[in-house]
Amino acid sequence: MTFKDYLPAFVVAGYALAGILGWLRGKLSSGRKPLAVAISVLVVATSLFWLIAGAGLTGTITILVVFLVVPFVVIFVSQVLGRARRRKAGDENLPPIWPAVVLAIGALAFCLPAVNLVTNGLCSLVGLDHNVGLLVTGTEDASTFRDGSPRLVSGEYLFEGTRIFVDHSWWFAFGPLPAEGDTIEVSVAPMWPYPIYENTWSAVVMTGLGATLLIPGIPLALLALKERRRTAVPALSSE
Prior knowledge:
Blueprint: H1 3-27, H2 32-89, H3 98-125, E1 130-140, E2 151-159, E3 162-171, E4 183-188, E5 196-197, H4 200-230
């Protein structure tokens, strides 16, 4: 048996030990603080062990940044700004601004990639892209469907004297995937991350995906603006 086969047992044992220590802590009348520290350390260590084993070090860092660091930064910045607003207005009962901040971040998370996808897709559809020959170096088809599903193609192309490498780009064209070593005519979008479109259908799909992201993005942006107006500091009288 491999380490991954024993991994669930280690994780269950770690959380079970933490549960036993918690039960003992409830029974003791003294020495509860050291046990509380031990339980916290054990739970954190077990969770990190599980994450690193399952997602790898890079994946674990990404998860911690997204779910711990980013929320902490948002809350901290919101509290600092809130204290500054209340001090400037001389009113300790001003409504908090963190709802507007959270809504704005959510709106940006949807709207920024949406604008990028729509702009690149439309540029390709109206001919503002660059046509290049993609040398296919690898393909991957993990789909159960034969046609029309996003499969993956890797390759390289030459653009203005620079060799550009493409890694696992979605391939929306119907029919079989190109063979390794084939050179396929594709278009490269003008904006980062410079996606490639193998045909018009590919550009239409990505443009549609961007438009879909605007469905939640625009309402979130409107709610953020509405919340910002609600929490705005009243203008001070000049009298």
